[in-house]
Design a protein that fits this description.
By secondary structure, the protein is an alpha+beta fold. 37% of the residues lie in helices and 28% in strands. It has 2 domains: 133 residues, 60s Ribosomal Protein L30, Chain: A (2-Layer Sandwich), CATH 3.30.1330; 139 residues, PurM-like C-terminal domain (Phosphoribosyl-aminoimidazole Synthetase, Chain A, domain 2), CATH 3.90.650. The relative contact order is 0.17. The structure holds magnesium ion (MG).
Length: 299
């Protein structure tokens, strides 16, 4: 069977099962009163960057997607290593511009590049590993959502999808990981589960449902759809099924959620239910949210 028939999500399930890895945005390593958070994400010019993307965009994006996973656990970034593959005929200036993008991103969100590797490759590939830390009593794993918890997102959604359609590369690639929001949520100690929305809302809900053995009811009229997405006729499709929104999706007991709402830019979008189904309430009617989103190896 070819990988294109399997898809990225199933491929990661094979590896998490084989090595008994909890399915989360980061690994949590015991470090006394804290966890050392470790995550890695690889990007490739052909599969991640539309025509016209600059090397600055690529460097920033490669770094930011890793930082987003640290943010999703409530962590603070400490350090990064970067493995970079490039074709031999690439201009040196392009390489420097890529490093500039990476540097600017770390200046904004913290942590320092401390090592890496460069090799010859068919196309530009950047694999960054990020290290972060979080106090054990503040950490926000994906596991922990309970029936009756409220479901929230930070900021607005549909932004990544709209940016992709409009070929708005700044919006699509110069993403802003939610480190500050993640830290605030972590410090509140009331969040029961959290992940970032890189794969899109629908796919993320399915991942949380599987881990927590729960389901979700989401209300269409409560979704904080980004202005840039609302202009599109298929805004609901953009909000649910397109990836590239690096907001945080989290669950929290209802009353605690109301308190957080007073302090942060977060929106309640639904609730956790016991039944294993994921439903969208639109104009009073139930619709099934499908398990699809952006996935590599699938065309
Ligand atoms: Mg993630």
């Amino acid at each position: 069977m070819k990988l294109s028939q399997v898809g990225e999500r199933k491929l990661t399930y094979y590896v998490t099962k084989k090595f008994s890895i909890p399915f989360d945005d980061c690994a949590f390593l015991d470090a006394g009163e804290e966890y050392l958070l470790i995550t890695t994400d690889m990007v490739n010019r052909k599969t991640h960057f539309p025509e016209g993307s600059t090397f600055y965009h690529m460097g920033w994006y490669a770094m930011a997607v890793n930082i987003s996973d640290i943010a999703a656990k409530g962590g603070k970034p400490i350090a990064y290593v970067a493995a970079i593959g490039m074709p031999e005929n690439l201009e040196k200036e392009n390489y420097e511009e890529m490093l500039e993008g990476m540097e600017k991103c770390t200046e904004e969100y913290g942590g320092k590049l401390v090592g890496g590797d460069t090799k010859e490759a068919d196309d530009v590939t950047i694999a960054i590993t990020a290290f972060g830390k979080v106090r054990k009593d503040e950490a926000m794993p994906r596991k922990g959502a309970k029936p009756e918890d409220a479901v929230y997102v930070t900021g607005s959604i549909g932004r990544g999808g709209a940016a992709l359609l409009e070929k708005n590369l700044e919006e699509l690639l110069l993403i802003k990981p939610k480190i500050e929001e993640g830290r605030m949520l972590a410090k509140s100690k009331v969040v029961t589960s959290c992940m970032d929305l890189s794969d899109g809302l629908a796919s993320s809900l399915y991942q949380l449902a599987k881990i927590n053995n729960v389901g979700f009811i989401i209300y269409e009229d409560m979704l904080p759809v980004a202005e840039i997405a609302k202009k599109h006729e298929n805004w609901l499709e953009l909000a649910l099924y397109y990836g590239g929104d690096y907001e945080l999706l989290f669950t929290v007991p209802e009353e605690k959620g109301k308190e957080l709402e007073k302090k942060m830019d977060i929106k309640r979008i639904g609730k956790v239910i016991e039944e294993n189904k994921i439903t969208l309430i639109k104009e009073g009617k139930e619709h099934k949210i499908e398990d699809r989103g952006y996935e590599h190896f699938r065309m």
